Amino acid sequence: MPTLPERARAALLAFLRVPTGLHPPAGDPAQTRVFRAAPAFFRYRLALWALTHAGALAGLVVGLTVAGAVVARADDPTVTFWVTVGETLGVLSVVGSAAVSLAVLRLDYEQRWYAVTDRALRIREGVLTVREQTLTFANVQQVGVRQGPLQRLLGVADVHVSTAGGGGGAKGHDGSVGPNLHEGTLRGVADAPAIRDLIRARVRQHRDAGLGDPDDPTPPASPALAAVAELHEEVRALRRVLAP
After folding, report:
1. What is the DSSP letter of 168?
2. Chain-centre distance for alpha carbon 60
3. In this structure, what are the phi and psi dihedrals at residue 77, rounded to the nearest 5 degrees?
4. What are phi and psi of 78, to 5 degrees?
5. Which residues, listed in sequence order, are joined to residue 114 by a DSSP beta bridge?
6. What DSSP character marks residue 114?
7. Alpha-carbon radius of gyration of the chain
8. Which of 88, 89, 174, 208 has the least CB density, counted as fewest CB within 10 Å?
9. CA-CA distance, 232 to 132, in Å (whole number)?
10. Please, what sign has the CA dihedral across residues 58, 59, 61, 65?
11. What is the residue extent of each domain of the chain?
């Protein structure tokens, strides 16, 4: 599997300001599990990259053929010069675009992290646009596995997690729809059923233990305040049940 030279990799990460490593969400360190995308996921993305750039390569070949025919018919030094300039720019554009996109594809694979604690799931992905998402088990409603034909052939799959309040993506100030903050996907993992079962077990463990969200304050010791906190938890549970 191709790798980037260390210096080029470090320089590109610094230029793109991509954070390295992963900080797991709050939870018990002894129960924290960190996953990475499988090597077959990179081959899967590489196959899609090759299909995408095959069209550009075919267009370049056709363009060079037409340019050669134009030069042969024109038999003019000026036409030959400008056609040669166009051919050079076309080749540099296609080759440069392929090289940069391949480097970004490799970095995207290397910088993809998934962390599962006893309280939450964190997903970190992306290079040009870095996205870090945390889903607390208090709100998780569904966990499933998705696998397309090519993924099945390569032995990888996606684990999809949805939480209460899921729906369309968040809208920006310009009206554009962003990613859905109530859904997360662990893409290209090798043992998707085992990871799905682990997340389901952590959700059950979280609910059986009555743990709150990682950012919730510690319940007060006062009996009156403790009763209020208990009522609040019951209302939250009812809201999760009634949520669409």
Report:
1. S
2. 31
3. -60, -35
4. -65, -45
5. 35, 123
6. E
7. 25
8. 174
9. 29
10. positive
11. 216-244
Using a 10 angstrom Cβ sphere, with 0-12 exposed, 13-18 middle and 19 or more buried, the burial of residue 6 is exposed
Instruction: Please count the CA atoms within 13 angstroms of the CA of 64 that sit on its side-chain side.
Output: 13
Q: Are 161 and 142 in contact (CB under 8 A)?
A: yes
Let me know how many helices (H) and strands (E) the chain has, helices first: 6, 7
Q: What are 38's two structure tokens?
A: 């499988």
Q: Please state, in angstroms and rounded to a whole number, the distance separating the CA atoms of residues 100 and 106.
A: 10
- Mind listing the pLDDT tens digit of every residue in the chain (244 residues)? 555 667 776 776 777 677 666 778 888 888 899 999 999 999 888 988 998 888 888 888 888 888 888 777 777 788 788 888 888 888 888 888 888 888 888 888 988 999 999 889 999 988 888 888 999 998 899 999 999 888 899 899 999 999 986 555 555 444 544 567 789 999 999 999 999 999 999 998 887 766 555 444 444 445 555 565 665 565 565 455 455 5
Non-local (6+) Cβ contacts of 164 within 8 A are: 139, 141, 182, 239, 240, 243
Residues in the chain, total: 244
Distance CA 139, CA 240 (A): 7
